[in-house]
Amino acid sequence: MNHWRGVYTLFSKEVLRFMKVTVQTILTPVITALLYLLIFSHVMEERVQVYPGISYGEFLVPGLIMMSVIQNAFANSSSSLIQSKMTRNLIFLLLSPISVSGFYLAFVAAAVMRGLLVGAGICLVSVFFVSLPYYSILWLLVFSIIGSAVLGALGIIAGIWAEKFDQLAAFQNFVILPLSFLSGVFYSIHSLPEIWADISRFNPFFYMIDGFRYGVLGVSDISPWLSFSVVFGFFILISVACLIMLRSGYKLRD
Fold first, then answer.
1. Nearest alpha carbon to residue 169 among 153, 155, 180
2. Ramachandran bin of 123, using left for φ above 0, alpha for ψ from -120 to 50, beta for the remaining angles
3. What span, in angstroms and rounded, lies between the C-alpha atoms of 233 and 220?
4. DSSP alpha helices (H): ranges in 20-136?
5. Cα separation of 206 and 234, whole Å?
6. How far apart are alpha carbons 183 and 163 in whole angstroms?
7. How many CB atoms neighbour CB 72 within 10 A?
């Protein structure tokens, strides 16, 4: 009982941390996604139709939502850990009677919460520009929750590995951003040359975006079951790596 109370307390602390700066953590990514929508849909609307009967704006919005969800989930857990390391208050978390799995669960759940709030905000503002069918709420929730959990766990790994803010920024700029921008947010992989389409299939972010798009539009580049299998497998892999790092105390107990 005390264990779960501690996990809930840490989760609440992480949620309060980003809710105190909602302009930075929620409003800014919503406005950024809105700018992408306005610019790209204005330029491409009359020139590109990815799927029959679906405008480019309708194609673009699900990708923007999912890209923002996963980027902000990563930012939440990674920034929290690096701040705790730099301000040296991480010791209080390590001394608390919370298990490694509880620590992992609280951080990932808070990252998922922030990702979903950002995604919900973009959904709300997008109704003024496009009408989306929201084909399957179940698939939509599955990919948004598991996708943000993957990036929340990856954020913990990055936060543990990084010793300075610029190292964390490098991880985000050289790993997270390229993988998310090259995941089919702005295009279908069927429009790519064969070699680039094959390379895209090695990008796990592609399956998150494509599966979420299926939940919204009912169409996708590949089967949602294949996307689910890849994303869930990646989630297990990253979670195990994260738990091993937390249990070993790598760069946490130095």
1. 155
2. alpha
3. 20
4. 22, 28-44, 56-86, 90-95, 100-126
5. 12
6. 29
7. 26
pLDDT tens across 136-185, in order?
A: 999 999 999 999 999 999 999 999 999 999 999 999 999 999 999 899 99
The DSSP code for 248 is: H
How much is the pLDDT for 254?
67
pLDDT, residue 135, reads 96
10 Å CB burial of residue 173 (0-12, 13-18, 19+) is exposed
Residue 251 to residue 247: CA distance in whole angstroms? 11
**pLDDT of 183-192, one tens digit each?**
999 999 988 8
Structural contact between residues 116 and 146, judged by C-beta atoms closer than 8 angstroms: no
Mean pLDDT over the full length of the chain? 93
Q: How many CB atoms are located within 10 Å of the residue 133 CB?
A: 10
Give the CA diameter of the chain. Answer: 59
Average pLDDT over residues 14-22: 96
